[in-house]
Amino acid sequence: MVNRGLLKAIMTVIAAAGVAVGFSLPASASATPAASVSRYRIMQPSSGGNVCLDAGFEFSKCQYGPSPDDPPSLEKWILVPAANGSVQIKNGSFCLDLSMFTQPCAKGDGAQQWFRVSAGNGTFLVVNKSTRFPQCLDSFWTFKTCVQGDKQQIWRFKLAS
User: Fold this and answer.
1) 78-87 tens-digit pLDDT
2) Are 41 and 77 in contact (CB under 8 A)?
3) CA distance 34 to 22
4) Burial zone of 134 (CB within 10 Å; 0-12 exposed, 13-18 middle, 19+ buried)
5) pTM for the predicted model, two decimal places
6) Residue 150 burial (CB < 10 Å; 0-12/13-18/19+)?
């Protein structure tokens, strides 16, 4: 028979590994300095030009081109492991927050706990489960009840420099 404390420790290790694999984070990402953490552009394909999650303006046309800050820092997000296999989606000291788009990061805040759910072909729904009906990141309404196949809720995570 397995000791409860040992079983809990084993489950914690398995959960942490699942977050690292599920979000394509290096297993040591939470212990490394911010300079070596992977940054992502969270983007949505559009015929008028890709739309990027932008910490300053919610969503904007993705910026490309030669510049010292290409892509701009407002389009670079870090995925920080949080509770129950979720992540905080962080830009600077602010996190994607269900209540006000972004808020100062607060450990354990359910409004800042996001799950990346596969929508197929390398795309994902960005889901917050802290409300009665799960809310998805939606480029038209910011957040709304998740609807399968809604193109405004389908995102790609692309490594940024």
Assistant:
1) 999 999 999 9
2) yes
3) 20
4) middle
5) 0.74
6) middle
